[in-house]
Design goal:
By secondary structure, this protein is an all-alpha fold. It has one domain (70-308). Helices cover 71% and strands 0% of the residues. The chain has helices spanning 2-35, 51-60, 71-87, 102-112, 114-123, 127-158, 174-177, 179-193, 204-207, 217-243, 250-269, 275-308.
Length: 309
């Protein structure tokens, strides 16, 4: 009986995430439209509310073509990418019972995200796709170092591997304690998501469409769902880690939507950064700052122990 309830919970969570992704695309197109002084989608039903489902039907009805690609890896890689993106949501509080290492689980899945992207670029047998893949692999691996250090800083603050322990600090916003780490983590997650201004894998003037240039129809849909599912999860994790609100509270939803809006709005106002500037930012700025903060928090913890003893 418990196993059946758990499977129903999983299905419900998956359906809600997919609906959320559908309306997230509409939300983004509306924001971009109003910022650029135009309406955005507004024809289908009331204010274009049916537009995401129309787009989905159009995408799924397209034909799939294969251009000298490695068939098995070409087909399976987008599915693996989507599966890993959905796997992150297993840490959602009402999905977790005795799962005490949720932060380590997040780091594990984030570190595996690079593999399906690598296989997507390699199996396509396309020069532009491979160039985009090489860029994103170097980008993700470089910034994962400082990203993991910042997660480790949070673990040091709560002295636990379980993300649900953050709810015990509801009256203390970690945002105020370690504000620079919040900004660095936000930028790091933008880079992990390949969002503007760090969408260097999709430099249209250089790489056509980046690592997914050979993908279409339902396979492109899996890549699209994985990317936008990661946006929802990124906003979720930022809100929990730095604002410590319970997920059932109104304040949590307000700050959650604020992070989603911020990610969408940045796309319309910032130009694409140069690749060498981004890598320099990783190795000379973010890494040094995150290590400094980690050492600072460690010293504060040790100093506190000495005083208490």
């Amino acid at each position: 009986m418990m196993a059946l309830l758990y499977i129903l919970n999983l299905l419900m969570l998956l359906i809600l995430i997919l609906i959320g992704i559908a309306f997230l695309t509409l939300f983004e197109r509306k924001i971009l439209g109003y910022i650029q002084n135009r309406k955005g989608p507004n024809k289908l039903l009331f204010k274009g509310i049916f537009q995401p489902f129309s787009d989905a039907m159009k995408l799924l009805s397209k034909e799939i073509l294969f251009f000298n690609s490695d068939y098995l890896i070409y087909i399976s890689s987008p599915m693996i990418m989507f599966f890993l993106s959905m796997l992150l949501w297993l840490i959602y509080p009402w999905m977790v019972n005795n799962f005490n290492n949720t932060i380590l689980f997040i780091l594990l899945i984030l570190s595996m995200n690079v593999y399906p992207i690598m296989f997507i670029g390699w199996s396509s047998n396309n020069n532009y796709s491979m160039l985009g893949t090489m860029r994103i692999i170097a980008q993700m691996i470089s910034f994962e170092i400082s990203l993991f250090i910042m997660f480790f800083i949070i673990m040091m603050l709560i002295e636990n591997y379980n993300i649900s322990q953050l709810f015990k600090f509801e009256k203390i916003w970690f945002l105020l304690l370690i504000f620079p780490i919040y900004l660095i983590l936000f930028i790091n997650l933008l880079i992990e998501l390949n969002r503007t201004p760090f969408d260097l894998i999709e430099g249209e003037s250089e790489l056509v469409s980046g690592f997914n240039v050979e993908y279409m129809s339902s396979l492109f849909t899996f890549i699209f769902l994985a990317e936008y599912g990661s946006i929802l999860f990124t906003s979720f994790i930022l809100t929990i880690m730095f604002f410590n609100f319970n997920v059932n509270s109104l304040f949590f939803m307000v700050f959650y939507m604020f992070h989603i809006y911020l990610i969408m709005m940045i796309r319309s106002v910032l130009p694409r950064i140069r690749y060498d500037q981004m890598m320099n930012m990783c190795w000379t700025d973010f890494l040094i700052l995150s290590l400094t903060y980690m050492y600072y928090i460690y010293l504060m913890k040790e100093f506190n122990l000495i005083i208490n003893n």
